[in-house]
């Protein structure tokens, strides 16, 4: 049985006090959500205080990115995966489409970040997804499999225990336009098949694949009714404790 994961990506929003307030408001609202893993990803500067204030709760904290580097050194502006762990993060998101799109992140960099995250004992949420043009040209599957091939290259079967894939069609992120449950299911089933073929049937079966792209409390039921959708990576609707808890507390 794959345990669902509901992860909130707060992107570059919230001051320190707003981050703490939202986390503390969320805590009682999701306290009984033992059917899933609950994760929030504040900005780097809020990770320590948010994870301290959530200690002992069922909410875990993620970084939104990490360095490709694996050792400390003269790399201005970078944050090591091990430093995220040091301040309380247990997950890290890598390869988000906003990083690919606005910071020209490549699959090779996603791969280094993924390896760094795994080596630091973090669970890595690796994002992949096609643009609208790519979908309309019929290349959605090849784009996603190329991103995942590149991003996960060199990982062993045991490393894959620490990997969660997030399928996030770029055209559905922050646009209010969600993939239909059937469109999402089709891609999730494809991703699972690719993992099964590349590794083993068991690896494919065990892999958790989240959907991301305008997930809200009212479209969770449709998405979670699909057999290969194992949770959600949520942007906008994770910024408020009420809407995020509505997503977390959905049980299929
Ligand atoms: C995201 O940023 O990962 C995301 C899915 O955003 P939104 O839910 O706002 O579409």
Radius of gyration: 17 Å
Strand content: 15-25%
What does the largest sheet look like?
Answer: 8 strands, parallel, barrel
- Uncertain regions spanning at least 5 consecutive residues: none
Average of per-residue pLDDT values:
97
Strand order across the biggest sheet?
1-2-3-4-5-6-7-8
Decide which structural class fits the backbone.
alpha/beta
Number of strands: 8
Bound molecules: phosphoenolpyruvate
DSSP summary: helix tally: 11
The helicity comes to 40-55%
Order of helices and strands: EHEHEHEHHEHHEHHEHEH
- The shape, in one word, is globular
User: Termini distance?
Assistant: 13 Å
Structure description:
The chain is 41% helix and 15% strand. It has eleven helices and eight strands. The protein has an eight-stranded parallel β-barrel with strand order 1-2-3-4-5-6-7-8, surrounded by five helices. The longest helix has 18 residues, at 181-198. The chain is globular and about 45 Å long. The two termini are 13 Å apart. The structure holds phosphoenolpyruvate. Phosphoenolpyruvate is lined by residues 9, 168, 173-174, 212-215, 233-237. The site of phosphoenolpyruvate has 13 residues, from β8.
């Amino acid at each position: 049985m794959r345990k669902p994961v509901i992860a909130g990506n707060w992107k570059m929003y919230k001051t320190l006090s707003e981050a703490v307030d939202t986390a503390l408001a969320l805590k009682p609202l999701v306290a009984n959500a033992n059917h899933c893993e609950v994760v929030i990803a504040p900005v780097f500067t809020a990770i320590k205080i948010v994870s301290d204030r959530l200690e002992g709760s069922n909410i875990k904290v993620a970084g939104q990115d990490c360095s490709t580097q694996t050792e400390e050194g003269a790399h201005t502006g970078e944050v090591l995966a091990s430093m995220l762990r040091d301040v309380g993060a247990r997950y890290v998101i890598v390869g988000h489409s906003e990083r690919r799109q606005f910071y020209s992140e490549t699959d090779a960099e996603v791969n280094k970040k993924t390896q760094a995250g795994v080596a630091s004992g973090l669970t890595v949420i690796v994002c992949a997804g096609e643009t609208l043009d790519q979908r309309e040209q019929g290349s959605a599957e090849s784009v996603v499999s190329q991103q995942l091939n590149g991003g996960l290259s060199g990982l062993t079967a045991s490393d894959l225990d620490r990997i969660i894939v997030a399928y996030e069609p770029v055209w559905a992120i922050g646009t209010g336009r969600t993939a239909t449950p059937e469109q999402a299911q089709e891609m999730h089933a494809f991703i699972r098949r690719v993992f099964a073929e590349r590794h083993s049937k068991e690896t494919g079966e065990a892999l958790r694949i989240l959907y991301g792209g305008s997930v809200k409390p009212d479209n969770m039921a449709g998405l979670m009714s699909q057999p290969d959708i194992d949770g959600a990576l949520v942007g906008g609707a994770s910024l408020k404790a009420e809407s995020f808890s509505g997503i977390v507390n959905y049980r299929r």
